[in-house]
Specification:
By secondary structure, the chain is mainly β. It has one domain: Porin (Beta Barrel). The chain is globular. Strands 1, 2, 3, 4, 5, 6, 7, 8, 9 and 10 form a ten-stranded antiparallel beta sheet that branches. The chain has one helix and ten strands.
Length: 149
């Protein structure tokens, strides 16, 4: 059986400049999450204070491990954990690193998303595995989140 993907929400996650931890290789850095918005199936905001821990490999590939909180209007808080990868041709990854706008179809950016909440009306999210497709912009990450059925 092939699982279905159902749109769940769009996240526009505002980020601060990277904090280098270890230049590597492999390198490690931390990207502070400073806010953002939730739209689509839910409305709300991304709360400041989360972050994205990244491992930078010599081939330009990046392992992603993000942890942050959503505040969904009329519902409450949802903890997000997201593990994934961003990869692509060296010239595309270099352009992204410079903060340039790049067609997201030219690179691979996917994360597996888990949600935890005690908010009334959202308890079903605790049993959902989601997939996000990502787009890196100069000061934000746009994630289209899909529930895997």
């Amino acid at each position: 059986m092939t699982p279905a993907l159902t749109p769940l929400m769009t996240l526009e996650v505002a980020v601060a400049p990277p904090v280098s931890i270890d230049p590597g290789p492999p390198g490690r850095r931390f990207i502070p999450i400073v806010g953002g918005t939730v739209s689509g199936g839910f409305e709300g905001q991304v709360l400041p204070g989360g972050g994205d821990w990244q491992t930078l490999w010599p081939d330009g590939r990046m392992d992603i491990s993000a942890h942050y909180i959503l505040d969904l209007t009329g519902h409450g808080k949802v903890e997000i954990t997201s593990e994934g990868v961003r990869a692509g041709p060296p010239e595309i990854l270099t352009a992204l690193a410079r903060g340039e706008a790049v067609d997201p179809g030219l690179y691979y950016f996917r994360t597996a998303v888990r949600m935890r909440t005690a908010a009334p009306g959202l308890m079903r999210l605790n049993a959902v595995l989601a997939l996000a497709t990502g787009e890196r912009l100069a000061d934000q990450v746009r994630l289209q989140v899909f529930e895997i059925g």
